[in-house]
Amino acid sequence: MNLTKLSKIVSHALRHEPWLYELELDNQGWVNIEDLISALQGQQSEWKDLNQADIVKMINTSSKQRHEVKNNRIRALYGHSLPGKLQKRKAVPPEQLFHGTAPSMVSRIMETGLRPMSRQYVHLSIDTVMANKVGSRKAKDPLILLINAKEAHESGVVFYAGNDAVWLADTVPPEFIAIYTAS
Length: 183
Fold this sequence. Notes:
single chain; alpha+beta; Arc Repressor Mutant, subunit A; ADP-ribosylation fold; three-stranded antiparallel beta sheet
C-alpha cells in the first residue's frame, strides 16, 4: 500500500473537501474512522482493502504528523481550508518559531505580517529544517523568517499547538518577524 498516496487522500478528505467523501466533521475536525475508510473504499478500488491498521501505520510512519486517531475517530491536525474555523486549544509557544516562504513574499510579509491566506491559521515551524521543507514548496530557495513567539504571545498574539513540529496562529504582526540568519 502506498502510504504517501493514502496520506494525501486522507488529508484532502479531512482538511479540504470532506463533502466530496460524504463526511461530516465535528467542530474540532473529528470523524469516525470507519466512516472515512468506507468513504475512501467507495471512491477508488485502490482502497477496497483499506482498514484501520493501514491508517494507523500511515500516521505512525509519517514525518509530518498530519493526523491523529483517538477513540476510533480521526482528524487532521492542521492545514484546513474548510469554511468555518475548527477550534484549537490556545497554548504558550516556544520562544522562537520559524516560517519558510518564497523570497518574493518577504517584503509584503514584513509590511503586513503573516496571515493565513487560504488556510484557517498561519503555520509556524519549531525549527529551521521544517520551515525550509515547508518553504521549499513555495520556492526553490526559500527564505526562513524568525518569529519572536514569546514576545508576540506576551503582546496578545494567540498561538495554538498543532503538533510537535507545527504551531498555529491567527496572524503574526510584522513587529515580531525578522529574516533568519544562521549564526
